From TrEMBL:
It catalyses: [(1->4)-alpha-D-glucosyl](n) + ADP-alpha-D-glucose = [(1->4)-alpha-D-glucosyl](n+1) + ADP + H(+). Belongs to the glycosyltransferase 1 family. Bacterial/plant glycogen synthase subfamily. Signal peptide: none annotated. Keywords: Glycogen biosynthesis, Glycosyltransferase, Transferase. SUPFAM superfamilies: UDP-Glycosyltransferase/glycogen phosphorylase (SSF53756). The keyword Transferase applies. It holds the Pfam family Glycos_transf_1. It comes from the Bacteria. Residues 10-244 form the Starch synthase catalytic domain. Its EC number is 2.4.1.21. This is Glycogen synthase. GO terms for molecular function: alpha-1,4-glucan glucosyltransferase (ADP-glucose donor) activity. Pathway: Glycan biosynthesis; glycogen biosynthesis.
Amino acid sequence: MTKTSADAGQILSVTSECVPLIKSGGLADVAGALPSALAPHGWRMRVLLPAYPGLAALLDDPTPVCDLPDLFGGTGQILAGTCGQTEVLLLEAPHLFTREGGPYLDPDGRDYPDNPERFAALCWAAMVICRDGLPDGWRPDLVHAHDWQGGLVPAYLQQAGLDIPSVLTIHNIAFQGLGPAERLQGLRLDPALFTPEGPAEFWGKIGALKAGLSLATQVTTVSPRYATELELPEFGMGLEGVIAALPRPIAGILNGIDTESWSPETDAALVANYTATRIEKRKLNRIALAERFGLDLGEGPLAAVVSRLTRQKGLDLLPPVIPDFLARGGRLAVLGSGDVDLEAEYAALAARYPAQVGLLRGFDEPLAHQIYAGADALLVPSRFEPCGLTQLYALRYGAVPVVAATGGLADTVIAANPASLSAKVATGIVLPRIDAGGLAIALTQLCDLYADPRGWRQIQKNGLKADFGWGRSGAAYAALYAQLVQERVA
């Protein structure tokens, strides 16, 4: 019997970022969305994350609820409060988290050298909450940790002798939280975990993600396709053997998006709001977008990129094939920053084709909304993509995604081909292969489809009508939690 009653259980979510408090990637969106997605199923989730500078001021009535007098080189405490409807627990430890820079990198873009200790402290605090509970009597029935920053939670729970199920979600296996072996004692890890076959050892280093994978009750990831890809050497990043040996298969649960914050019908960032039945108003956003990027409107599609400019995102493949796309009347708007050499390539393209290619560095949330609402197509040629949210936002706003056949991109975009076009179900374009030639073929198809206004409008409407909210995903997580908690008490 699945728990779905009003008192189904308590979940502690352990994450390094969470919308709307702090965000550097899609993990924050997921961590911020899960509490409300689970509430209809009776699960009460509290989110534990570090108290980076300024975060405590964003909470309503932050209250100290737990002292941590010996926390990896200093003292700390846990503050409880709310941010909107989300119940938040902030780990306040100035010696670890009060510093310039971002959550993981210093102002020069380098990893903080004490990152292993910083996020071990987060995991330790999670264990203390599970062991001692909170003053209001709240104690989690299950811990849900995210990525390597939460990877040591299962280890600390095991060392403390706590019989509580744990879930570890892989949002991107490329980031594994490796630390020097000599820090094992400082990280309060049992030496028995650090042997050639042990859960915390990875090629002579301490592997936080490996420890989480090996010791969690259940491992999940953010799309069904990525769950199967992770057993392959080209995607597993050295951990494919660990994953293949897990006692339970990885559960691939597709991410959702916040359909209230991301709604072309009500979005205040747009020049004009619209729906699938009033899609003609979308053209006003297209005109405004071209003006913002200094582009003239050609006869072809206006394509956009909203992304980090990295090889993982496949964005080194785009510059060589853009001239042919522009020759067919296409236009390109790019919002992002990343690898220095790629930024330079896109800047050179914008300088060479000033009325056809526009580049704005960095990230601007309102502008991202405007791009999804105004672009004809969104380019996401990633070499790997665990889930991806940009293609979901694009679908939600009627920007046709052009994606690689990998991870969540493959799970969420219905490729335009004769069968899907005939059935009027196509929602996007899928590269035939992930290289510059494959991207060139996809851009040619984009131009051909765009040249048929009626068919193009059908593809846009299909995306606008698709449901990628958190309803199904929230139900899947709730069912998984119920199963794990019931196994514990059985």
